[in-house]
Amino acid sequence: MKVNGKHVVLSFVCLVLGFMISFSYQLTQKEEDRISDRQWERDHNIRTMIINTEERNRELQNELFEKQEIVRQIEEEIAKEEQLFFNLVEDVEKLRMYNGNVKVKGTGVEVTLADASYVPSEENVNNYIVHESHVFRVVNELLISGSDAVAINGQRITKNSYIVCNGPVITVDGNQYPAPFVITAIGEPEVLIPSLNIVGGVKDQLVFDNITVKITQKEEILMEPVIH
């Protein structure tokens, strides 16, 4: 068979073109493989970094929880100390008040003890006048019932106070006061008054001893500090 020049050239061109296509495909495939390798390595690095970051975040979160627990315990200790200091200050103020070192003002009651208005001629007059025992009963009942401060005829009563009966007068801490004796107490009237009026209590005992008793609720009582 005869092969002309055109067929030879065409065959050669096809051969070269096929070679070029094959070479181009192989080159492209290798490039894609290299890109895939780089992509895989980059993805791997990113995943590793994310895992490390999450692990670090967990460590930091646990550390934060531990520090928060320490802070909470410290705050509790501070709160306890503050409450302790508050209680101490409050106790000191109460002691100063009970000792008569500070001025006191508040609601309360006023109890007036007076000698009997009538004394039978055949009776002993001493059985119809107010004695220190009568005053003691009222003062003790008021203190037991929660009074913050007590005074007799304006004379503030403290832990060192003494009351002595001297005939028709009563001496309170060296100061003499005649009847009637006005005992004032700062406290809750709704507690103090029922404690005095209880059946068989202080008021009934005083009335039985022929003492005139008057109990009055006061909206405001002011007591000055004791002058030493």
Q: Describe it for me?
A:
It is a single chain. The protein has helices spanning 5-98, 132-144, 189-197, 202-208; strands at residues 104-114, 149-152, 155-156, 163-166, 169-172, 175-178, 181-186, 212-223. It is an alpha+beta fold. The protein is rod-shaped. The longest helix is centred in the N-terminal third of the chain and has 94 residues, at 5-98. The protein folds into two domains: 1-73; 99-223, 2-Layer Sandwich (Alpha-Beta Plaits), CATH 3.30.70.1880. Belongs to the UPF0749 family.
The gross shape turns out to be rod-shaped
Proportion in β-strands: 15-25%
Low-confidence stretches: none
Our count of helices gives 4
Count of all domains: 2
CATH architecture of the largest domain: 2-Layer Sandwich
Task: State the main characteristics.
single chain, about 230 residues, Alpha-Beta Plaits, 5-stranded antiparallel beta sheet, 3-stranded antiparallel beta sheet, 8 strands, about 55% helix, about 20% strand, coiled coil, DUF881, DUF881 domain-containing protein, RNA-binding, RNA binding
Secondary structure: elements and pairs:
Layout: H1 5-98, E1 104-114, H2 132-144, E2 149-152, E3 155-156, E4 163-166, E5 169-172, E6 175-178, E7 181-186, H3 189-197, H4 202-208, E8 212-223
Antiparallel strand pairs: 1-7, 1-8, 2-3, 2-7, 4-5, 5-6
